[in-house]
Amino acid sequence: MPAAKKTDTLEASLKKLESIVDKLEGGQLDLEASLALFEEGVSLTKTCQKKLGDAEKKIKILTDKHGLVDFDEDE
Measuring CA to CA, how many Å separate 39 from each of 1, 10, 36, 49, 58? Predict the structure, then answer.
């Protein structure tokens, strides 16, 4: 399975990651195939974390710029 493209959306990366987890949990793969999928899963996880971090930073910048405040969960 090829590594994630940098242009993949977060949703596409998550779908690929879910597919990898399903295959690994299936227990039908040999060690080499399992390790290759695990390595791809780690790469996809890093990609997803970066995309989420970037989105969080952008939201912070936008809310700070426009004077918006965080929701208070108690209200």
Answer: 11, 18, 5, 15, 29
Report the domain count for the chain: 1
Q: Which two tokens stand for residue 13?
A: 């990366």
Q: Among positive and negative, which fits the CA dihedral 63, 68, 72, 75?
A: negative
CATH number of the domain that residue 36 is part of = 1.10.287
In total, the chain counts a number of residues equal to: 75
Structural domain for 35, as ranges: 10-65
Determine the pLDDT at residue 65: 84
pTM here is: 0.72
